């Protein structure tokens, strides 16, 4: 599984709770390779508490004393940056592009995503070791993204990138908007909808809501409204069934009256 | 700014630290509207500690006693689900589609993204109120995503969706088709739609289409379907007027029978 080739590297993390939360964030997304560079406190009960059920990732972490050690066997090294760093002319990835790149590269190679210290980030020396930078867009007035939250977002994007590769890119990435709404179900045809509109119109005439001599665009407005739904097969059955009930009850009643 | 129209709703959160972390997650992405439904502990020092510099979002949170109160003024209600819920044939969004949808809708309307309890998620009754569900893809062997982490991911996707709208005009115009149809007309609120649903349900029960002892998700399916329309004020009048005609005719008939 390619996600196991993506390594999360945390440099000199101050709060052990963040290490535990990062382990949990990784595991929820299927990542497992955690490397700690000079952690301030590790192991630590706070880390255990925050790891929840991800103690295997936490306890399996390797501990090293420099970033170069941490990434020695990696082909790709991506540093995270709180700033856009445009001035440094870095190759700057969006989290999405980072996830796609990491998932794709991880099919055959090892990728490291590197997170700096809570307050001060990565040193210049550490930046030198990175091939690319990724910047998570954030509120310019408050860009205080927790390090475990940053791990969560980039692990999530790695998983999305991975799923796009394994489940078929087209389905995952492109224009899912309307279709995502009715997952896996056929949208009915215009002809099918016409049957519904005729039934609706008949009922509206019957109940004197619509006067055939003065229709006031009522059916046009109904069509425009229902036309926005993208009605599925089972939903059309529901709509027509309810109309039949509204009509049927009346027919039944009429029949009773005639008896 | 449209992101202020996106409301994060947390239902009965057990751990106050999660509320604080959610506030921080929101603020890093530019969201500010937090609503708590029956929080177990709020306010609480643990929440303050986890909020870091996002105490304005945390302290500005509204506290209510039910989901329907929390979303009364919202046009779009998106529930989060830990499962894919394919069996229920929900309108199931990816986080990406959710972010795009929320950012686009939030330009003119209010959108709620609803997070359930840490252990048990949303109740069926709460699910009834949702128009769509979003599922964050996760490790099938360990899908224990922390609620604040889920808030982080969906807030992040909302920001990405927002940036795509504001920074890329092409994308904006392409996905506006549906809205063009209702251009310039007010979309009614969830509370307004509730009135319609109650009337529809009453008629369905009356005509024996819906058996209150065995409702078979009929109202949920109706809500999901009509929830996709973005009903305008004049359309709601049309819908309610037609239902009244369907009902009134019957009452009239009943009256005639009694005479």
Automatic annotation (TrEMBL), chains A, B:
GO cellular component terms listed in the entry, alphabetical order: cytosol
Pfam families: SpoU_methylase (PF00588)
This protein's record includes keyword Transferase: yes
Subcellular location: Cytoplasm
EC number(s) reported in the record: 2.1.1.200
A GO biological-process term: tRNA nucleoside ribose methylation
Recorded catalytic activity of this chain's protein: cytidine(32) in tRNA + S-adenosyl-L-methionine = 2'-O-methylcytidine(32) in tRNA + S-adenosyl-L-homocysteine + H(+); uridine(32) in tRNA + S-adenosyl-L-methionine = 2'-O-methyluridine(32) in tRNA + S-adenosyl-L-homocysteine + H(+)
The family this protein is said to belong to: Belongs to the class IV-like SAM-binding methyltransferase superfamily. RNA methyltransferase TrmH family.
Classification via PANTHER family: TRNA (CYTIDINE_URIDINE-2'-O-)-METHYLTRANSFERASE TRMJ, TRNA/RRNA METHYLTRANSFERASE
Assembly: Homodimer.
Protein name: tRNA (cytidine/uridine-2'-O-)-methyltransferase TrmJ
Organism the protein comes from: Leucothrix arctica
